[in-house]
Amino acid sequence: MSETMRPSTGSSQAGGRGALQAIARMSSTRANYLVGQAADFVVSFALLGAAFWYDHSRPLQAAVVVLLGLFIFSFIEYAFHRWLFHGPVPLFEQGHTLHHEKPLGYDSLPFFFPPAVVLLLAAALALVLPTALALLLSGAIALGYALYGFSHLVIHRRRFNHPLARKWAAVHHVHHHHPDKNYGVTSPLWDFILGTWYVSKSKVRVR
Questions:
Q1: How many CB atoms lie within 10 A of CB 76?
Q2: pLDDT attached to residue 2
Q3: Are 190 and 183 in contact (CB under 8 A)?
Q4: Which among 3, 32, 137, 156 is least surrounded, fewest beta carbons within 10 Å?
Q5: What DSSP state is assigned to residue 88?
Q6: How distant, in Å, are the alpha carbons of 76, 109, 122, 167 from that of 187?
């Protein structure tokens, strides 16, 4: 390699690091957080709308597929939170630790990343499923993710008056004090199934 080419290689590497640092800084801003929330809902509604436009002749089947997609996402939410965000992968664990330290911070994925992943998922599902079903399933999973993000936002930033809403929010607040319990944010379903539901010591019967 000639001497004239070496600086350009170093410049490209520095440029790559600079781009990653810029994305990291952007990911901790309020604007990225709010734009990401909006983008997640837009993509989910776009996929569901496209599925309806493509085939709206079987509404009962469509409803079942949407419920299935939301159910699938409920496990994705639990699995990612338990085994990635609290797991051995530093990239995920470090970012989530920061959230536990500063729960009112705006750290989140780059706004463009989840929509890109969802669109890739829709394309992959279309290879093995009829197009309308692929759009419905991926749209429902995307809707689950959007609802998860919105739920997480309001749980940390709003005080609820309704008793049921307070109990729902309290489930996640408990997780911040007991990080090995209550991994579900939108629903405690998988915590019940997989044994990570928090039970206070006062409620445990002494045998």
A1: 14
A2: 44
A3: yes
A4: 3
A5: S
A6: 12, 21, 24, 12
**What CA–CA distance (Å, rounded) separates 81 from 172?**
12
- Alpha-carbon torsion, ordered 136, 139, 143, 149, to 10 deg: 160
Under a CB-based contact definition with an 8 Å cutoff, are residues 197 and 191 in contact? yes
Token pair 């429902």 is at which residue? Answer: 140
> Which two tokens mark 144?
């689950």
- Give me the half-sphere count of Cα atoms (radius 13 Å) on the Cβ side of residue 106: 16
Sign of CA dihedral 154, 65, 125, 88: positive
Q: Which amino acid is at 165?
A: A
Q: What pTM, to 2 d.p., does this model score? A: 0.85
Contact, 96 vs 85, CB < 8 A? yes
Tokens of 88: 């051995």
Place of tokens 């520095």: 14
Q: Rounded CA gap, 203 and 194, in Å?
A: 19
Q: Residues 181, 186, 187, CA angle at the centre, nearest 5°?
A: 65
Q: Which residues have CB under 8 Å from 157's CB, separation 6+?
A: 104
Burial of 132 (C-beta count, 10 Å sphere; 0-12/13-18/19+): buried
Instruction: Please write the tens of the pLDDT for every residue from 62-102.
Output: 999 999 999 999 999 999 999 988 888 776 777 677 788 88
CA proximity to 100, closest of 185, 178, 198, 33: 178
